[in-house]
Amino acid sequence: MTTGGGAGRPGIDYPWQPLSAGALRMTAAFDLATRLRFVLVRTSHPGNIGSAARAIRTMGFARMELVAPARFPDREAHALAAGADDVLEHAGIHAELIDGLAASSLVLGLSARRRGVNLPEITPREAAAQALAAAARGEQVALVFGNERSGLENGELARCHAMVRIPSVDDFSSLNLAQAVQVMAYELRVALLGDVPAAAPPVDDEPPADAAQMEQFYRHLAQMLDDIEFHKGRAPTTIMLRLRKLYQRAQPSERELRVLHGMLADAQRMAALAQSRQRD
Ligand code: SAH
Q1: Model-level pTM greater than 0.85?
Q2: I need a labelling partner for 35 at 20 to 30 A (CA). Which of 9, 11, 75, 144 fits?
């Protein structure tokens, strides 16, 4: 189930800007801001969704994607949004994380805890710099936040390119969800105000594959491993997480993915051939 969201949906209306140098900078900043999305995964408390919307809105962002929220829409969310209802009304609601990420080619997961996923760990400031650099290349960027109690699960972090950790103290590291959103949104705002390119640099010849294309590749990879009987009775979960990590780190371009799909298809063809020979 996916509602709202989508690359081309109307954003929030901003007043028309005269085309002074300052306005051009603002327009560039606005363009970059529209390429960033805040993805809240399995949020338990609608109040946190509202507070997160307010946090996003105060820092000049608008796009929120909700993945399997426990309660939404909800009165409490609107109460705590304190006027940022436009963010709530435009929020996409998705059953699966992949639908909330969709066209994003840079996915940054926020987590209080270092987990076994072994992703590169960066600060919110570094994340903001990376996110804006990707947005300036025309890419879509997702900042992903976990459930209030359990945070992001390993399978969710495996869809990320890096883990962002707000440097809280070790013995009390967990911020409230909306406060974590605020810290990240603030760093993005500061980075945007500091150094916005007047015009976006040309889009890279080979843009990285986006989350949906990567997901399609992982499905093909899993199918191929089944076809060549790679798992030999073992559960595929751990190996698939490891392989995801490997390919996420590589950040293949669309063209590179096409080569990989071609290899997988050939391996499947050979496996089918071997099977039919065995039967004969
Ligand atoms: N016990 C959970 C905490 C969840 S708090 C855990 O250890 O992960 C809800 C969400 O807020 C987290 O999933 C994360 O996205 C964000 N968050 C809270 N504290 C954070 C921190 N110190 N650094 C980065 N993100 C944090």
Answers
A1: no
A2: 75
